[in-house]
Amino acid sequence: MLVAFSVTPLGTGESVGDLVAEAVRVVRASGLPNRTDAMFTTVEGEWDEVMTVVKQAVDAVAAKAPRVSLVLKADVRPSVTDALTGKVAHVERYLSA
Fold first, then answer.
1. Which long-range contacts (CB under 8 A, 24 or more apart) does 79-82 make?
2. Domain boundaries, position 70
3. 29-52 per-position pLDDT tens digit
4. Are 87 and 73 in contact (CB under 8 A)?
5. Domain CATH number, residue 59
6. Are 16 and 9 in contact (CB under 8 A)?
7. What is the pTM of this model?
8. What's the domain count of the chain?
9. How far is residue 24 CA from its own chain's centroid?
């Protein structure tokens, strides 16, 4: 499955990059395929392992913020692997045609 999620600390002031970095650090340490862009971090893996990483990322931010907002979108597709790069490559093929 692919899970794109965004963790936003609330009640910590205007700048939240340092706390968002804590969430991304958890994701990268997980060893699961992942990608971070300006709005979301996407993680690929099995349901339980991906959801565990999302929870750990939220917990890392919650340890330093009084409130946390989580936005999550999932693509649950059993037996599909490498969707993190495969889906983008598929669209790129259409764009180059």
1. 82/33, 82/44
2. 2-95
3. 999 999 999 999 999 999 999 999
4. no
5. 3.30.70.930
6. yes
7. 0.89
8. 1
9. 8
